[in-house]
Amino acid sequence: MERKTGITIIEKEGERMGTTFEKRKKVIYDLICDDLYVPMKLKEIAMLLQIPREQRHELKEVLEALEADGKIYVSKKGKYVKGQPQYQKGIFQANARGFGFVLQEGEEEDIFIPEEHTNGAFQGDEVEFVITKAPEGKRREGKIVKILSHGTTKIVGLYEKSKSFGFVRPDNQRVLKDIYIPAGKEKGAMTGHKVVVELTSYGGENLKPEGKVVEILGHINDPGTDILSIVKEYDIPTEFPEKVLNQAEHVGKDVSEADMAGRLDLRDWQMVTIDGEDAKDLDDAVSLTKVEQGWKLGVHIADVTNYVQEKSALDREALKRGTSVYLADRVIPMLPHKLSNGICSLNAGENRLALSCIMTVDTKGEIVDHVIAETVIRVDQRMSYTSVAKILEERDEKERERYQELVPMFEQMAEVSKLLRERRKKRGAIDFDFPETKIILDEQGKPVELKPYERNVATKMIEDFMLAANETVAEEYFWREIPFLYRTHEAPEEDKVRTLSTFINNFGYHIHMGNEIRPKEIQKLLEKVEGTPQEALISRLALRSMKQARYTPENAGHFGLAAQYYTHFTSPIRRYPDLQIHRIIKENLRGRFNEDRTAHYQKILQDVATQSSEMERRAEEAERETVKLKKVEYMQERIGEVFEGVISGITKWGAYVELPNTIEGLVHVVNMRDDHYECLEDRYELVGERTHKVYKLGQRVQVQVTGANRLSRTIDFEFWNDGSENDRF
User: Fold this and answer.
1) What class is the 88-149 domain?
2) pTM of the entire structure?
3) 205 contacts 198 by C-beta, under 8 angstroms
4) Are 482 and 663 in contact (CB under 8 A)?
5) What architecture does CATH give domain 637-728?
6) Closest CA to 152 of 92, 206, 100
7) In this model, does residue 299 exceed pLDDT 90?
């Protein structure tokens, strides 16, 4: 007896009505519209209609066509439902491989958009989309139905001239097509010039985007052009408007007697600034004296708001920038140099206005009392981290003799710092000690040395004092119940911690979850793995499970520091939130906080928090890209050399390896020629099908440098002595 399948039913129906794809669609649509129909997944529909596995792709085509027509949609649970889907909005982020993601405000997880469903969306576009798949426990998929607005209007890239036209290869790898430049629109650009292009058309399926050159940054090989390109790519303003510079010039006068009136005079206190050797914007000074209960620790911060008045041109520009940006060869300040390196910098021997947080620290490291006050200070000595470390760690006789008057204070500072740190550790604060990269450039801007920027006793000391002041100020103003800005770091997502927990079980480690994850559990884990071969691996995964810190008008605590109250108070020269809360603190100290001012701050603080968080992300990305670029330049000179490193990431396309100098490169699976390797994502392993050789996260390996691409800012490695052709070297 002939078995009747669902497709056969459709075809029989089609024969009666004239066989077309449209008729198949009608039969399926009628089924979904039936009153007795219950929303089902594709597999369930196939089983209902008795469609064999080998023919299910035909059913999928029919369902996708109905979906494209807007007659049916896929629910969050992946079931087919009659009617229009719910249209959602978000920002499209392209990927160099053709697919993309949609990011939604307030949503942790982005939506995956397959290449065939991007609908011509461009990097940064605001789009309307629908969910097409929502598999349990996996990332949701979607389809872009409409482009609402273009987020990218200018592109930075490398100009190449052709006979009758030109084109620009974008620096941003998320912009997937070259930009066509018609003749006469190149502004005199020649092949090899880095340029800024203004887009005039976004192209289409078979058309390149089109644009005109609006700025020539310089030749790709000219010193500084590479970093300037990154600055322009992230649209970071480099020049201050004339009005802002004039205002800085006007307010940046020496401290007068009138300025000092009514302030707490601390000019006879012994105090120092401790910074990097090349720092010019010195916004924090520290002091320490012995008292009966323990010590009086003073953190004295430049009173920037005295010179940057609310709603002034200076203030508006500072908010627009949000933060200073520290790049490999330059600093792009939040405030003009006249202020940041002048009157607002706590230069030794000069009278300076400050906002001081003076804390009484007892012998257990607890802050038992504090005073926040407007002060006038005079720093005794500008110290460097290196010099203080020489005094305290190396006990360098020459250095101790040079600063003999300050040595007793430094030794006490080291003691207090230790107590504060131990107390923080006791409550569960997490200390991710990943070294930052210090890049040494020559006069031409070429990297000559890369090394981890190690923390020493002096950097930790200043870190401890600043953290203490930030917490003290945050707690004080939380209980005052007036509008304020906090630095918020929320607890990680439960599923991310669960994933981490599952993975570390392989190594015999455990995280106690309970009702909620506590920072102490992460801290305990990091302590357990310290000094083990898995330390780097597990620390990195723990860090990846964390959320990003941001600014909020509500106090939600800081998970990483295990702090109930936290803010940013200590750097008003280079961070706008600090400047903003200084203004609030001063109004409160002067008794000017009333209903009007409360309402004013309630109105503006959410926008300030959002803008500051966004500008911080932009600065971090630009800094990261600059470091990547200089690392690539450094490795271009070392093609063919062999290095030892640690596998720092495992993906479908290969293994990332990090070298001791913090450089990271990719060993692509294509270049793992001794076998075909399968990626086991849940175990962070690449496993050879034939040899069963395993490459896993945290493993020590030797790699050879095979490529370094300045345009894509990527470094290519191959495993050394992995049984492949590399053995011949």
Assistant:
1) mainly beta
2) 0.83
3) no
4) no
5) Beta Barrel (2.40)
6) 92
7) yes
